[in-house]
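User: My collaborator sent over this chain with a note saying "see what the structure looks like." That's all I know about it. Can you take a look?
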Amino acid sequence: MARTALALHRLSQLLQHELGRTGDLDVTPAEVLVLAILRDRGPTSVGELVDLLGHRPSTLTTILDRLSDRRLVVRQVRPDDRRSFLVLLTERGQDEALRSERALAEAEAAMLDSLDRDTASALRSALGT
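Assistant: Without extra context I'll predict from the sequence alone. Here is the result:
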């Protein structure tokens, strides 16, 4: 178990390192994931984002505040439950999500290229990608 956790941690670190080298992204890796989820799923509740990302609500609020300050996302009151919010990408957020997605794909490819062929193949298989 510890070897698996260590290997996953190392892969995560490699991916973050490669993502940092991909250019002039104006978003953090955590923000990239939020943008990617919103691009894939459309309007998503804060609670769903917490569940999908595994962040504490306060951590996600900080991430959403930064994205909102840069006008990449907006929060709208849910029409079916006025006590909660949906998070949506703005047009600018859509553009940044596409740019980030390309950078993430480049970083992922670079990270996988750093592994030997069998390890990369096993990882892809295990992750279902």
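A starting point for your reply to your collaborator: The beta strands are 44-45, 73-78, 81-89.
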